[in-house]
Amino acid sequence: MSQDRVRVGWGYDSHRFVKGRRLVLGGVVIPHRVGLQGHSDADAVIHAVIDALLGAAAYGDIGTLFPDSDPAYREADSQRLLKDVVRRIQPRFQIGNVDVTVITQEPKLGPYKSRMRVRLSRLLSVPLKDVSVKAKTNEGMGFIGRGQGLAAVAVAVLSRKKRKGR
Predict the structure, then answer these.
(1) Nearest to 79 by CA among 36, 18, 121, 20
(2) Where are the domains of the chain?
(3) Is 163 exposed, middle or buried (0-12, 13-18, 19+ CB in 10 A)?
(4) What is the model's pLDDT at position 1?
(5) How far apart are CA 91 and CA 50, in angstroms?
(6) pLDDT value at position 6?
(7) pLDDT tens column, 75-102
(8) What is the pTM assigned to this prediction?
(9) Within the chain, which residues score under 50 in pLDDT?
(10) 61-76 in b/e burial notation, b at 16+ Cβ within 10 A?
């Protein structure tokens, strides 16, 4: 295979809703009566994007890179973690596009999807046209349908940068 091949990664994250925390998705604070439980800020959108990027680059996963057993990541801003991942992959890979779906019964995310796209575009240093954010319900099924939490899935496409002299 050529050195400039396309690589695809898939990421997933889910968190329980919990009182007393703010809800942050895609780097955007969403007004809601509950937030997400987690060691960091529990931004499931950014966590799924991180895993998709790491998977496409074959660099492991978010839990290996930023373990929840490490106090350094307690209440960590996931935007900072994403910037670190982008910095790690940029020497070898170029981000093509990122596609995210958030699965939640509530809150309704329609009014916030464009803000999430803009924020992710900036964090990833890619054009807005290369970032997609969608929202779906779970049709009342499972823990998501019962309003106990939410999940996010992401796909990232990377292309390997050509090495100098090749």
Answers:
(1) 121
(2) 6-160
(3) exposed
(4) 37
(5) 16
(6) 95
(7) 789 999 999 999 999 999 999 999 999 9
(8) 0.94
(9) 1
(10) ebeebbeeeeeebeeb
Structural tokens at position 141: 């099924």
- Report the C-alpha gap between 50 and 6 in whole angstroms: 18
Q: CATH second-level architecture of 6-160?
A: 2-Layer Sandwich (3.30)
- Of the candidates 1, 34, 2, the residue with the CA atom closest to the CA atom of residue 162: 2
